[in-house]
Every structure is written in structure tokens, then in C-alpha cells.
């Protein structure tokens, strides 16, 4: 004998998420995304400051090395970074790749060269700075997300860094 199919008793609620639960999850995800975004912006700003401080030290080291060696060293400012060349004994410019200081570097996102003035002359047409037995006096300006930073080099090789909104 065949019995009729049995009906399952109806459950009191449907399975799935309610609209309120979905909205709460979306709000939480939005808050987390905002926090992550702010954190990344903070890191980017810190990267820019660190890159500028490193550049200040590299400029001082370049002046020192050129003076000690008695041979000129050039730092060339590329659209996205900088590299070094040294004058060899045969008077040819050769790439200088002496890790960790004199390797080609890329600027972090948000940093751009905005100008170079050497020895009080008008803006340099060729974006390069040559160091010899005596360092040139110069002002290198770098555009940052928070304004323009200035690296000011003295004839004794010292370099000061003026960050937007503060000095160091």
C-alpha cells in the first residue's frame, strides 16, 4: 500500500539573512575600509618623509665622497627617481652603483621634482647636480602630497631639509 507523501511541518522562520543583518555587515566593512585607507595614506606620507630624509643623507654622502676621492660625482634627477655617475680616470662618466648609498633609487608615489637652483642661478635646464672637491650651493625642491619640500645644500656639503609645514 502506498501512503500519501508526508508534508514537512512548516518552519517558523525562513533561512538567510535579514536586511538589517546585511546592512550591519556592510557598515562594518565600510568602517574597516575607511580605517585601512587612512592607514595607507599615513604610511604613504611616512614613506615620503623617509625618502626625503634619505635623499638629504645621500646628498651629503655624495658631497663627502666626491671631496675625498677628488673626482666629480653627478646625481641625475630622473622623472621618477635619481641615479649617480662618477668621472673615471679616463674622464668618462660611468654609472656609480655602490650599494646601499649610490644605487639608483625610485621616488615613492606622490613625490616629484619641482625645481633645482644651483649657486643662485636660474632654474637648471639639465636636472643634474655635480659635486666636486667642493660642493655646490643649491636648492632642490620636491613636490609632496602635503606641499613642497626644500633641500638646501651648502658649500661645506651640509644639507638641510625643510618639510612642508615644518623644518628639520
Helices and strands in order:
Elements: H1 19-69, E1 73-78, E2 81-87, E3 93-95, E4 105-106, E5 112-118, E6 128-131, E7 138-144, E8 147-153, E9 159-162
Core attributes:
single chain, 168 residues, four-stranded antiparallel β-sheet, alpha+beta, minor pseudopilin epsh fold, 30% helix, five-stranded antiparallel β-sheet
How would you describe this structure to a colleague?
This protein is α+β, with helices and mostly antiparallel strands and 168 residues long. It has a single domain, classed as minor pseudopilin epsh fold (3-Layer(bab) Sandwich), CATH 3.55.40.10. It contains 1 helix and 9 strands, in the order αβββββββββ. Strands 1, 2, 3, 4 and 6 form a 5-stranded antiparallel beta sheet that branches. Strands 5-7-8-9 form a 4-stranded antiparallel beta sheet, covered by helices on one side. The relative contact order is 0.14. About 4% of the residues have low confidence.
- Residues in helix, %: 25-40%
Beta-strand residue percentage? 25-35%
Mass-distribution shape? elongated
Oligomer: single chain
CATH class: Alpha Beta
Low-confidence runs of at least 5 consecutive residues = 40-45
Question: Which CATH architecture?
Answer: 3-Layer(bab) Sandwich
- Total count of helical runs of at least 4 residues: 1
Mean pLDDT: 82
Count of all domains:
1
Largest sheet: 5 strands, antiparallel
Distance between the termini: 95 Å
String of helices and strands: HEEEEEEEEE
Strand count? 9
CATH topology descriptor: minor pseudopilin epsh fold
Estimated radius of gyration: 29 Å
Question: Superfamily at the CATH H level?
Answer: minor pseudopilin epsh domain
> Which secondary-structure class do the elements indicate?
alpha+beta
Amino acid at each position: 500500500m502506498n501512503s500519501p507523501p508526508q508534508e514537512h511541518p512548516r518552519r517558523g522562520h525562513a533561512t538567510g539573512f535579514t536586511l538589517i543583518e546585511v546592512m550591519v555587515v556592510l557598515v562594518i566593512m565600510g568602517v574597516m575600509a575607511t580605517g585601512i585607507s587612512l592607514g595607507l595614506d599615513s604610511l604613504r606620507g611616512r614613506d615620503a618623509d623617509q625618502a626625503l630624509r634619505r635623499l638629504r643623507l645621500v646628498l651629503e654622502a655624495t658631497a663627502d665622497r666626491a671631496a675625498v676621492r677628488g673626482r666629480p660625482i653627478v646625481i641625475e634627477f630622473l622623472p621618477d627617481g635619481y641615479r649617480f655617475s662618477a668621472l673615471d680616470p679616463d674622464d668618462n662618466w660611468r654609472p656609480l652603483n655602490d650599494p646601499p648609498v649610490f644605487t639608483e633609487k625610485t621616488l615613492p608615489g606622490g613625490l616629484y621634482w619641482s625645481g633645482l637652483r644651483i649657486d643662485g642661478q636660474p632654474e637648471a635646464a639639465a636636472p643634474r647636480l655635480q659635486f666636486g672637491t667642493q660642493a655646490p650651493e643649491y636648492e632642490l625642491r620636491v613636490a609632496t602630497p602635503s606641499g613642497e619640500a626644500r633641500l638646501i645644500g651648502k658649500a661645506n656639503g651640509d644639507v638641510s631639509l625643510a618639510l612642508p609645514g615644518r623644518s628639520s
